[in-house]
């Protein structure tokens, strides 16, 4: 039995509320169980210097966690004067994931910055940030299209992410914190709406895993991603 009482292949309840930030070109609050992430998209009219003259745009991300997003207060990274290695790794992951679903030439020489702020953490924050970040990106691109700033939709496909792991000897979908902290193996799976893999992060946490178990986790991830993509479609409809 999972701590939450869910079946092995059950996702946590998902909701995505859009338009939650007045000034952002695109925004949403994504809720996955008790994990809540605020995502916003900002359109900047110029691309980074390394893309100057290339005719291509860029999508990047920043990620942060509020001090009381967890059960004890974490010091703000701004107060410490630098970002942690974990934060840097996660925001690079979010940027890579979202760029996989974008035709950067169709975007033109501009940058879209996705900000992901964790309001409450209960496992899977990076996955929720990617899934919600795509919604914010989609809404921002819609504004560019509506204003005829770009003529071709640069969004190639949905991008979403979910965690899976081996908990108590069984493959389970969408780990919450209680499971993530005890899982023998855990992984993050990022996929497109068409089911193509963008990135897989898997590691053994004290117990190795077999190829068969990895296949089980991939099968669970595919089903979970399909559910997340449906939620994305509903949110931006």
Short synopsis of the structure:
Homohexameric ring arranged as a trimer of dimers. The protein is α+β, with helices and mostly antiparallel strands and 237 residues long.
Structure characteristics:
237 residues; alpha+beta; Ribosomal Protein S5, domain 2; 9 strands; 32% helix; four-stranded antiparallel beta sheet; single chain; five-stranded mixed beta sheet
Helices and strands, with pairings:
Layout: E1 14-18, E2 26-32, E3 35-44, E4 58-65, H1 77-80, H2 85-99, H3 104-107, E5 111-120, H4 125-146, E6 159-167, E7 170-173, H5 177-180, E8 185-192, E9 197-204, H6 211-236
Parallel strand pairs: 4-5
Antiparallel strand pairs: 1-2, 2-3, 3-5, 6-7, 6-8, 8-9
Helix pairs in contact: 2-4, 4-6
Describe this structure in words.
The strands form 2 sheets. The protein has a 5-stranded mixed beta sheet with strand order 1-2-3-5-4. Strands 7-6-8-9 form a 4-stranded antiparallel beta sheet, sandwiched between helices. It has a single domain, classed as GHMP Kinase, N-terminal domain (Ribosomal Protein S5, domain 2, 2-Layer Sandwich). The mean pLDDT is 96. 41% of the residues are buried. Helix content is 32%, strand content 29%. By secondary structure, the chain is of the alpha+beta class. This is Ribonuclease PH. Phosphate binds at residues 86, 124-126.
């Amino acid at each position: 039995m999972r701590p939450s009482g869910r079946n092995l292949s059950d996702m946590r309840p998902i909701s995505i509320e859009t338009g939650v930030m007045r000034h952002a070109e695109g925004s949403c609050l994504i809720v996955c169980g008790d994990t809540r992430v605020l995502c916003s998209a900002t359109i900047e009219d110029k691309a980074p210097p390394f893309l100057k003259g290339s005719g291509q745009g860029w999508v990047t991300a920043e990620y942060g966690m509020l001090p009381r997003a967890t059960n004890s207060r974490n010091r703000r990274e701004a107060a410490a004067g630098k970002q942690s290695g974990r934060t840097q790794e996660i925001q690079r992951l979010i940027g890579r994931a979202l760029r996989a679903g974008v035709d950067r030439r169709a975007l033109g020489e501009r940058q879209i910055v996705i900000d992901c702020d964790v309001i409450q953490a209960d496992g899977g924050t990076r996955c929720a940030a990617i899934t919600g970040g795509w919604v914010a990106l989609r809404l921002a691109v819609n504004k560019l299209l509506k204003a005829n700033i770009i003529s071709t939709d640069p969004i190639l496909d949905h991008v979403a992410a979910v965690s899976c792991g081996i908990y108590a000897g069984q493959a389970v979908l969408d780990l919450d914190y209680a499971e993530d902290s005890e899982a023998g193996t855990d992984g993050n799976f990022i996929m497109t709406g068409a089911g193509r893999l963008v990135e897989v992060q898997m590691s053994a946490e004290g117990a190795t895993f077999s190829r068969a178990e990895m296949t089980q986790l991939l099968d669970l991830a595919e089903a979970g991603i399909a559910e997340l993509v449906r939620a994305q479609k509903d949110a931006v409809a």
